[in-house]
C-alpha cells in the first residue's frame, strides 16, 4: 500500500524518454499503456472524448450561453470583497494572523497576474507541450527558462520535471512574487524546489557551474532584450547546453541575429559553437493562435 502511494506521488518514476511515443505513434490508433504515460499533448482520442462529453451534456462547441454564477464578480470586485469582508469564514482578533502559513497579497489571490503579459494564461500549456515534445523531454531532464515571468509556462515544466530540475532567471519583482507567493504554493509545487533566481544581466553563476541542461528556452523574452545582451547570454549558455541533444528554443523572432545579416548571423553563431536548426510553428489547443519558435543546438562538444 505504502509502495503504491509513494510511486503515485513521484513523477520521476515515469519513463525516461518521449522517444518511443514519437517512434511508435502516428497520431491514429489507440495508445497503449506505455504511450499514454509518455505522451504530453492531447491525442486525437482525447479530443474526440472531450467533444463527446460536451455533446452528451447538452453543450455545443459554439453558441452556449455563459450564464454567470450566484455571485458574479470581476477580479477587481473580488479583491474589494477580500479587503472588505476577508472571505466568508475568517479569524478575528490578535490571533488572526497565526493561522496562515504563507499570507498572500489579495491581488495575487484574485490572479491579476494571469493577465500581466497580455497573452491568455492557457497558452502556457501549449508552449510547454510544444517544447517538451520537440526536445524529447523526460521528467529527469534539466530545463532552464530565461524570463519565466509569472510561471505561465514554467509551472507546467515544474509539475512534469523531477524536483530541482527546473531553473529560471527572471528580473521582474512582481513576476517573482507571483511565482513564489501564489503559483508554487497554490499549485502544490513547493516540494518540486524549482531554482528561480532574480537577475537581469544574463548571469547564471547562481545555477552552479556543473549543471548541463537538456532544454534552455525563452518564451517572448529575447524580443524585449537588447541584442547585445542576448549574445552575452548565449555565449555563457553554450557550455551549459548538453552537446548535440540539448536544445535552445526562443520564440517570436531572432532579430538579435538576423539584423546582422544572414552570413554574419551564421558566422557569430558558429563562433559561439551554436547551430541554427530551423523555425517551427505550433498551434494552440484552445484558441486561434500559433507561436513561432527558433531552434538551436551545440555544434561542438
Ligand atoms: C512577455 S514576458 C513572458 C513571460 C513568460 N516567459 C511567458 O511566456 O509567460 C517577458 C519576461 O521576460 C522578463 N525579462 C525581460 N528581460 C529580462 C532579462 N534581461 N533577464 C531576465 N528576465 C527578463 C520580463 O521580466 C518578463 O517576465
UniProtKB/TrEMBL annotation:
Protein name (database record): S-ADENOSYL-L-METHIONINE-DEPENDENT METHYLTRANSFERASES SUPERFAMILY PROTEIN
Signal peptide: 1-20
Gene Ontology MF terms: methyltransferase activity
Keyword annotations of the record: Methyltransferase, Signal, Transferase
SUPFAM superfamilies: S-adenosyl-L-methionine-dependent methyltransferases
Gene3D superfamilies assigned: Vaccinia Virus protein VP39
CDD domains according to UniProt: AdoMet_MTases (cd02440)
GO BP terms, alphabetized: methylation
PANTHER family, per the entry: S-ADENOSYL-L-METHIONINE-DEPENDENT METHYLTRANSFERASES SUPERFAMILY PROTEIN
Organism: Salix koriyanagi
Organismal lineage: Eukaryota, Viridiplantae, Streptophyta, Embryophyta, Tracheophyta
Annotated InterPro entries: SAM-dependent_MTases_sf
Amino acid at each position: 500500500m505504502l509502495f503504491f502511494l509513494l510511486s503515485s506521488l513521484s513523477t520521476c518514476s515515469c519513463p525516461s524518454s518521449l522517444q518511443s511515443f514519437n517512434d511508435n505513434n502516428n497520431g491514429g490508433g489507440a495508445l497503449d499503456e506505455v504511450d499514454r504515460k509518455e505522451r504530453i499533448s492531447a491525442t486525437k482520442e482525447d479530443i474526440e472524448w472531450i467533444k463527446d462529453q460536451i455533446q452528451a451534456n447538452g453543450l455545443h462547441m459554439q453558441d452556449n450561453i455563459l450564464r454567470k454564477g450566484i455571485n458574479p464578480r470581476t477580479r477587481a470586485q473580488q479583491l474589494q470583497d477580500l479587503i472588505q469582508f476577508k472571505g466568508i469564514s475568517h479569524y478575528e482578533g490578535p490571533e488572526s494572523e497565526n493561522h496562515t502559513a504563507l499570507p498572500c497579497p489579495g491581488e495575487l489571490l484574485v490572479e491579476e497576474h494571469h493577465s500581466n503579459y497580455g497573452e491568455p494564461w492557457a497558452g502556457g500549456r501549449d508552449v510547454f507541450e510544444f517544447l517538451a515534445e520537440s526536445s524529447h523531454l523526460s521528467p529527469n531532464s534539466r530545463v532552464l527558462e530565461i524570463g519565466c515571468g509569472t510561471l505561465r509556462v514554467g509551472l507546467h515544466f515544474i509539475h512534469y520535471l523531477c524536483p530541482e530540475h527546473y531553473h529560471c532567471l527572471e528580473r521582474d519583482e512582481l513576476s517573482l512574487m507571483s511565482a513564489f507567493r501564489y503559483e508554487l504554493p497554490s499549485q502544490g509545487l513547493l516540494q518540486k524546489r524549482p531554482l528561480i533566481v532574480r537577475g537581469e544581466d544574463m548571469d547564471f553563476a547562481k545555477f552552479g557551474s556543473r549543471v548541463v541542461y537538456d532544454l534552455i528556452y525563452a518564451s517572448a523574452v529575447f524580443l524585449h532584450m537588447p541584442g547585445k545582451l542576448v549574445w552575452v547570454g548565449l555565449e555563457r549558455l553554450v557550455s551549459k547546453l548538453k552537446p548535440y541533444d540539448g536544445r535552445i528554443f526562443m520564440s517570436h523572432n531572432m532579430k538579435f541575429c538576423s539584423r546582422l545579416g544572414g552570413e554574419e548571423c551564421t558566422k557569430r553563431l558558429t563562433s559561439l559553437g551554436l547551430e541554427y536548426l530551423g523555425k517551427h510553428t505550433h498551434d494552440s489547443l484552445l484558441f486561434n493562435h500559433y507561436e513561432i519558435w527558433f531552434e538551436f543546438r551545440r555544434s561542438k562538444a
